[in-house]
Design brief:
Rossmann fold, SAM-dependent_MTases_sf, Methyltransf_11, Class I SAM-dependent methyltransferase, Erg6_SMT_methyltransf, alpha/beta
Amino acid sequence: MEQENDVQAKRDLMYGELDLGSLTIFSGSFINYGYWGELAPDREITLAERTASQAELYRQTVSRLPTPPGVELLELGSGIGVGAALVAREFAAYVTGLDRSKAQLDRAAAVNADDLEALSGRLAFREGSVTAIPFPDASFDGVYSVEALQHVDDLAAVAREAHRVLRPGGAFAAATFFAPGAAAHPLDDLIETVASGVDVIRPVADFAADLEAAGFTRVTVEAIGEHVWRQFDRWIAQTEYRDSWGRNWLRCYENGWIDYHLVSARR
C-alpha cells in the first residue's frame, strides 16, 4: 500500500504542481499523444497540427459512442478540460469532466471560462475518483476517457463504476496505450514513467475482460498505433525533449511491445 501511495503521489505531482500540460510536447492545453493524419515527411510539424491531432483523438474516441443531441456524457480524467469543452460544443452534448486533481480542476475553470458561460450548463467539472465515481446509478448515456486510464491501478473498478453510472443502452469508450499481448516486454528499461509506476502497461485483452466481467457487451478493441506513434515521435524530435526517453515509445511500438488502442463497449 505504501508503494502504491508513493506512485499516486508522483501522478498527483505531475498533474498538479508540475502542470504536465505546460510542456511543449503537448499544446492547446490538451495532454495526449494525438491521432494524426498523413503529414508530408520533409517539413516540420506546425503547432496548429500538433493541437489538431490532440483534438482529433477526442473526436475519434467520442465517435464510438451514440451521441444524439443532448446526450449526457462523463469524461474520466478530464484534466484541464479542453477536451470536454470540445465534446460539448461539437457533439451538442452535456459533458461532465471528472478529475481527482484540484489543481487541474482550477485550471479547467480558468481555461474554459468562456465555454462554461456560453454552453449554458452543458459543461461542468467535478472532483472525484474514476474508481469510485461520485454520481448515482444510471446518471449518464455515455462514459469516455482519453489517455488517462494508464494512470489507474484498478481498471476492473473503473469498468464496474462506468457500468454502474451508465443508463441501460449506454456506451463506454477509452483511448490509451496497452500491451498488445501478454508476453513479457522491456518497457521498464526504456520508458521512465513505466519504470516509476506512473504509467501501468497492461495487456489490452485484460481490460476487455474487465469490461465483460462488469457486465458490458459488444466489447471492441481497435489498434490505432499507426495514427499515433510515428507522428508523435516526429513532434518530440522537434522539441527540447528530442534526446529524451520519450523517443523510446516508437521503438517499443515497432517491436510490438506496446500499441495505442480504442476500446469501446455497450451496457
